[in-house]
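Two entries, shown back to back:
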Amino acid sequence: MNNPNQPSSHTPLSISPSTRFQAVSFHTVGEAEAGQRIDNFLLKHLKPAPKSLIYRILRKGEVRVDKKRAKPDYRLQLGESVRIPPIRLEQNNNEKPASAQLLQQLEKAVMLEDNNIIVLNKPAGLAVHGGSGTPTGLIEGFRQLRPNLPYVELVHRLDKETSGLVLLAKNRQTLNALHAQFRREDSETLPMKKHYKALVLGTWQGGTKHIQLDLQREGNQRQKVQVKAGGKTAESIFIPHRLYPATADRPALSLLNVEILTGRMHQIRTQLAHLNHPIIGDDRYGDFKQNRALQTLGIKRLFLHAEKMAFRLDFSGQNYTLHAPLAKDLQGPLTRFNQQLKRL
């Protein structure tokens, strides 16, 4: 139970990286934090404190929840009071402010926002997370774009090279509900529907195909995936949308609708390459010679787009059917191919 004499806040802590706390501070758990592990709560709100510091203050009992010690895996409950000890946080030079160009790009990408979710049509070339070589990704940039949002978390990943729909959750209840749908772990809730558009090399044969392949990361950096028995099962449905016969200036191509039933790294790209229909513009799994040739026709990046999503948030009763149109750099070449098709 809360101590009414303690200062409290229903929004996440806002802590300057160089702040030294002269006295113990307290935080009242709001709806956004309820259900979150306390170690994850501290890691997020005491950035850029190292993990070793977070676990040390938990282990020593310096962090208290309603005056009691809390183990790292303890899940916070609404209304509890969290005691934060006085600590010093050094400036994290790796956290870079987002550029004005990125913030403008993110603002334009917002397609829908309500009390629970934010939907963006992510442009190709933007990583969803910052990392080595990419100091600021979509989620870091969006938090800077909307600093007053008490909670915003990335629901799922999308390859840097892939464009299309990305979901952000504005509260933990939404995040947990959508994660359950992504993982198909709730038998009483319809799973999320996720559809992509992909332009691939060659003429697709045999109509709709339901493909299951085991995928495993390879190499020291684990940045590439291979089909290998014993790996994690990846399941997709490939549906031919339009076939483009070869012409004098390009090879035969096929435009596919793809529904993914699992969410493995590079799932669609790896499966299509294994089926000898690599995605056009794929610089990891594709046909490099044909990629270079098709650049002259305007396809200068991976032709993979997260086009549609459909899901329901049972707790709100809201159904969502989302559609992100193809960007001009993909739609332009496709329009020309369609015009060629009419003349054949």
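entry 2 starts here
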Amino acid sequence: MKIVTNLRKVVRYNSLYGFRRTVIKVAGRTRNHKLNIFFPVKRGEKNISLIGCGQFGFSTISYFLYKKIGSHFLECYDIDSKKSLSTAKFWGYKPCKNAEALISNPKCKYVYIASDHYTHSEYAIEAIEAGKIVYCEKPISVTRDQLLNLVKTIKQFHAEIYFGYNRPFSKAINDLIPYIKNCRAPMTLTCFISGHKLAADHWYNDPKEGTRICGNLGHWIDLSMYLFEQRGVEPEIYDINITYSSKDELDDNIAVSYRTEHGDLITLVLTSRTEPFEGINETINLQCGNVISKIDDFQKQTLWVGEKRQLFKYNPKDVGHLRAINQPFIDEKRRVNTVIRSTLLMLEIKDMVMNVEESRRYDLKEDNKFLF
């Protein structure tokens, strides 16, 4: 039965993402290096190193780098040596025994970080201090101290750093932005996310990893901050409310809402009562000025501007990974302050969850020391 289910999943993924993306997802799960026959080496300078060789580093970061710029893979490292070796064998990295050696290699120009969440800031700081260009996957920090140290390092070294929040780079959001750009109108945004059903011993559930608020919900917190930035008014006051479905699973099956001094209303629902067959599934609805948008799992978007209606379809499904991961190589970059603001709000919400709080007012002006 499991074989049949997996075959059905492969067929479904092929219809969503296309053949090669499906192959690499299968390769990431099975670590079958023979599947790299579909990804012949594209010659180029080897100057990109990867810290973190789990599913994301293997099948998302490495794949989209390969797709855009080719085989520039230098070294890789993971605390699980088997993952490091299998990633190296598939993509052509050289496995490294520790992160310090990887970062100190003079041939390394770019360091991509996709390790356990609580290590992201530490590795990013080490790479910045070594003069590397850094791509840091989300979350960029899981504590305020980590974030402050990272910000200080970025300022001190005038670092070139890129962040892995990918939804703003999706085609759907790219199509939406021109219609709300600098409109300065109040915004209503709802995001309903069907997330992965995690086992109790999954590493996301380790308290030091920042809960699912940092691991998952941070994506949509960041999306709201990006949309605030684009509409031309960025709030400072956040009245946050959290509804828990159960005090036994504080960061799962949870609703987080916040309203701002500009009349914005944001509602984020994360649920994982069952494993979504096609992976994370999300529905996003927005109203801002005379614009209404409905985004269905980044496969299609219905957009109303006044009486005019447009329908956009996205095949393959596009959540923004290609453009986000290749920020160092294309003329696009997230504004650092927006990502810091979203991280500050995320950490505030994480702190509420860990203290089982249901409401709190957060004044972002009090954290100006974090901003540029």
